[in-house]
What does this fold into?
Amino acid sequence: MLTEADPQLAKNYDEDLRRLATLSGAGITIAGLVLLAIIAYAGWASNQSATARESILLQNGLNRGIARALNEQKSVAWWDDAVVKITNAQIDTEFVNSNFGVFLTETYGHDEVYILNGENRPLYAFTAGAQAEAGQFETRRAALAAVVAQARGDTSTSTGLKNRPDAFGADQNNYRTLTGAVEAARWAGHILSVDGRLAVVAAITIVPNVDMSLLKGPSNLLVSVTYIDSDYVTTLGRSLLMTDLAISPTAASGDGVVAEPLDGDDGTHAGYLTWTTHRPGQVFLNFILPLVAMGVLATAVLANGMLRRLKKSSQALAMSEQQSRHDARHDTLSDLPNRPHFAEKLDHALSEAAAGGKHVIVAYVDIDRFKDVNDTLGHQAGDALIQAVAGRLKAKLRPKDLLSRYGGDEFAILWSATEPNAATLLAERIQSAFSTRFDVNGQSLLVTASAGIATSTGHTTTGDDLMRQADIALYEGKTQGRNRAIFFSDDMAHRVEERRSIELDLQAALANDGLRLNYQPIIASKTGAIVGVEALLRWRHPERGEMSPATFIPIAEHSGLMPELGEWVLRRAMVDARLWPDLQVSVNLSPVQFRQVDLEAVLQRLISEHGADPRRFILEITEGVLMESCDRTSATLDAIHRMGFLTALDDFGTGYSSLSYLCNFRFDKIKIDRSFVSGMSKSQSYQKIVHAVVALGKGLGMDIVAEGVETEAEVAIMTGLGCGELQGYYFSKPIEPEALSRLLKTHVPVSSIERAEFQAVALAEPLALAATG
Ligand code: C2E
Ligand code: CA
Ligand code: CA
It folds into this structure.
């Protein structure tokens, strides 16, 4: 089947595009999101690891705090003097105060200092900046018991404390080896809740640093408490470059503030350490992420815009493709399928019909005298008429029928039918389309059309055959007088064949000098003298014998042979005319020749070739010529006149015989048609018309020639009516040039006066009319 402008194709195209758009949109979105996620994660992760690092630093700091406390204790606890001066028996108070209580609290910021003896009985206490009752220790004993026990190396009971790396111990190996106090030097440090407050609790044995022999029995134990208060934390923070490190009861966090639980090794929870974490990832989150997000967004917007434009332009492309596909198969003016389109559908219909044993009917419709509409009302009106006719025909057809604009004013109809009288039905429909007047540009026109209808006979008929047959029938309709539908018949084809063979033979005759001219004398009615001749073409067909120009001239006109044939006639006439220098020679011009663009040039060339005097030649033109393009007709007539030729309006009285032609175009002669002349004796109105024409013609300076004068009576009447010249069998049939030459020698003119007696008898009426005119 034919592919009409395919909407499915456009739709597929559209879907493909939509899929592409969706895919690329999704691709960009996913890629963008992944990129953003990566950046966000990188930012988040580097922030996380920075914070984690800070947490570790913080823990290390706390651990180091314990080690520092122990180191500070060690500076006084591992000392020979301390062993000597602090015994169960007696304590050198001054020594202990200055080297333990005051020294540790003032120099190192310990808050409470206790010294226990070998049995953990308190020997000394220094609290709140002053020496206190040693028994004060009892208020702390429970809280500090675990650390004391650990420092004593008591492994029998679990301390229940969280283990911390022993930063202090790692530094003491040297010392212990040196002193040999492997057993005696012991220590423990923890962070514990003391009196409801978190504190660094450190305990260390008081042992000699030089003379190990001084140590007798279990050693004393130095215990100190350093509260982790805001000062402690601030100092810790400064050492860790965490300047805003603080203790907070809640895990309050803000912009970049993180919190770490501050728990004692005994499991007590004492709030949170908070600080502003370094956030190296923030540059990713605050700067790169938004930038990239903007980039992704811009890319998405850009891609979206591009896809939109791509979609738009490809849609436009698809549309224009569809349009040009449509245009290639349709006529622009009527939007009907064009000729190739029709031919395709016809072939298809024929093959289908042949398979189904059906017939296909085609009609070839041609608007009658369309050219007149075009020429008189303009091309716009012509176009409007074409459209109106297309509309009318379409309305008369069924949807399954096909109407095509086949050419200028020609339409073709494909009628698929099963009814036996289908062709007649189609003919009726076509004719009914023209039954009412057309309104064209405000003008009401009665337009008719001729149609040729052909029916396929079987599988042998091709589309070309069928269209040719319809064309033949149309031609027949046109020649039969238009405004009718004619069915193709075989004898029509036969006639066409015949015409074709005549055409070929005529071509041959033209080439082989098989044509000749005869001349029919034209008589001056007053004197009876031969004043001119009309050249008439003669052809003896090799088989058919002498053939009438009325038969073969139309064939020549139809087949395009006329210009050549016409030129041959003109040339022949110019050559022959030299034989009769006193005669005017009339030559018939076919409308086809008249329309020929180079007619002027042809005439000019012939004149100079033969040295002919154009004033001796009268070119006879029929009314049909005048009905065609007015401007061009006038121009051509003027050009002919300018060259010096005379002109005659031939066959006046047939066809339209419009008097306006006589006014609008200048002719030298009017030739009244034979049918008019022979009708004259029967009808008085004919006489009146001729009389009027003669009067008008004379008024316009035109001579009147009566054609086909056969009888004495006609001679008399036409003379009486005022025709200046007469032509007809009465005087002579068209004759060979030699015969004419002879006739010219023997001819005895009979003047009209000599015929007057007869006229008076035969033509009482016309004469009376003439006399009054
Ligand atoms: P037409 O131009 O009207 O030529 C006059 C025709 O009437 C001639 O017919 C002539 O023989 C015929 N005729 C003349 N007197 C009488 C008469 O008294 N009685 C009768 N019955 N007929 C008479 P023909 O020669 O057969 O030519 C027929 C037509 O063929 C011409 O009509 C003309 O239209 C055309 N024709 C002839 N020769 C040429 C030519 O060379 N060129 C062109 N274009 N057309 C030509
Ligand atoms: Ca003529
Ligand atoms: Ca004539």
Summary: The pocket of C2E (ligand 1) is lined by residues 520, 535-537, 548-550, 553, 569, 588, 590, 620, 650-651, 674, 708-710, 727-729, 734 (CB under 6 Å).
